[in-house]
Design goal:
Number of strands: 19
CATH topology of the largest domain: Jelly Rolls
CATH class of the largest domain: Mainly Beta
Helix content: 25-40%
Number of domains: 4
Strand content: 25-35%
């Protein structure tokens, strides 16, 4: 007897009851099983078997895609939620494994106090909101309070109107919403300086800041206000200073207007590098400003032997004055700009650019030092590249409080235009803001 035939020696029929639960079998598989059992000819039985194999492969493929999708979703949830949501993540993984029952998902919508949320997302959103209200992660400002101690810190939040006013007891609303206490955190650098951190919900990007009492500082951004109270009035009525950093660009710039954004950008075709106040410069129109911010602005010099030139004016003093309206306000523009230079700490500026003139690829950025364009920074490629520099010298702030940059291509040869492409100019400056004692 050969090796194969020994497997086909059982002449008895299969009489045991079919233990497969029929209600779990799909219609397709029932049809294939019937064909295998009932077809008269071998070719039909083989075809039925072949289709069964293909159907099983197709089912396995679909199951695998579902498993991959569920696994990807589980990983995304793992990254998004931590600690307080770990239990929910584990339950979701168990759901993928087929061991979670409906009651577990229902329980996940109930918090420790018995409050039932309509959906699991509703509970997670509520948890995240509470965490963001308690976890102080965002720095509001750093203050040299000069109290020679580790003073207490209180922060209050309100919206609309003046919102908060100094008070002997608690801050009171002034035509705005009710005042809420903020879970702020002090970071003490030494006995005379500290950083105030608030939860993400109360973060401010470009607030105006005023000292409104001996130990209170009011921050206002749009309709939102923060009142920061440091120490006690008896010890706080001294000169204080604050470290402040601001970033300027051309977002929200309206052509021919200084109200929304005080910075100005201009262009010219010229052989020489003109001073910032030269009347030959043309201010960008609104479409050009939009390109400067969202993509890039191109200057195509059709003038023979000329350069394509962009002038970038950042109004540091005006930006500072708007954020600290009472810090420097009792003199002429010239006097106030000089005071601003005295508190200036540093500036970091830059822009993306590239240039060509038919002979070479080259764009250059320089800064104005009151008499000449200095400190060249160059890009000699045909790709947009960032040109940038840094200074602690206030000499680059002109009599109007401006920091002036020029970006240009080389002169053309009279046959091919000089072209300059420029994108997203920006400057970040830092100052030490003085607050005089309250009289």
């Amino acid at each position: 007897m050969n090796e194969i035939s020994k497997y086909y020696r059982d002449p008895t029929h299969i009489t045991e009851e079919n233990w497969v639960e029929v209600f779990k079998i799909s219609g397709t598989h029932k049809t294939l099983a019937a064909w295998i059992r009932e077809k008269m000819y071998g070719i039909d039985v083989r075809e039925a078997l072949a289709r069964l194999v293909e159907q099983m492969s197709s089912d396995l493929y679909d199951d695998r895609q579902i498993a991959i999708a569920l696994d990807k979703l589980a990983k995304e949830l793992q990254e998004k939620w931590d600690n307080d949501t770990q239990k929910i993540i584990d339950e979701w993984k168990n759901t993928i494994g087929g061991v979670t029952v409906d009651s577990e998902l229902i329980n996940a919508r109930i918090d420790l106090h018995g409050i039932v949320y309509k959906t699991l997302k509703e509970r997670l959103d509520d948890m995240q909101s509470k965490i963001e209200n308690l976890d102080a992660t965002e720095s509001v400002f750093t203050l040299n309070h000069n109290q020679n101690c580790y003073p207490t810190l209180r922060v209050f939040y309100s919206t609309y109107g003046a919102a908060v006013v100094p008070s002997e007891e608690e801050p009171m609303g002034a035509g705005g919403s009710e005042v809420n206490y903020v879970h702020a955190e002090p970071i003490y650098h030494d006995l005379d300086s500290m950083t105030v951190k608030v939860p993400f919900k109360y973060k401010m990007v470009n607030p105006t800041i005023e000292r409104i009492s001996e130990n209170q500082y009011l921050l206002v951004e749009d309709i939102r206000t923060l009142l920061v109270e440091i120490g006690s009035k008896g010890e706080a009525n001294v000169e204080t200073t604050m470290e402040f950093t601001s970033t300027l660009d051309y977002k929200n710039k309206v052509a021919k207007s200084d109200l929304e954004n005080p910075n100005v950008a201009k262009w010219v075709h010229n052989t020489d590098l003109l001073s910032p106040d030269n009347s030959k410069y043309n201010e960008l129109n609104q479409a050009y400003y939009n390109l400067l911010v969202n993509s890039s602005f191109v200057i195509n010099s059709v003038v023979s032997k000329a350069r394509a030139i962009a002038l970038i004016n950042f109004n540091l003093y005006e930006d500072f004055k708007r954020k600290f309206p009472s810090a420097i306000s009792d003199g002429s523009l010239e006097q106030n700009v000089q005071k601003f230079r005295l508190i200036f700490k540093s500036a970091n500026w830059g822009t993306y650019s590239k240039g060509s003139n038919g002979i070479e690829n080259k764009s250059t950025m320089r800064i104005w030092n009151q008499t000449a364009w200095v400190v060249p920074r160059e890009n000699k490629t045909d790709k947009l590249a960032k040109l940038q520099d840094y200074t602690v010298n206030p000499v680059y702030i002109d009599g109007r409080g401006m920091l002036n940059l020029i970006v240009y291509s080389e002169q053309n040869d009279g046959t091919v235009n000089s072209v300059l492409e420029i994108s997203k100019p920006i400057v970040t400056y830092a100052v030490t803001v003085p607050f005089a004692p309250i009289k």
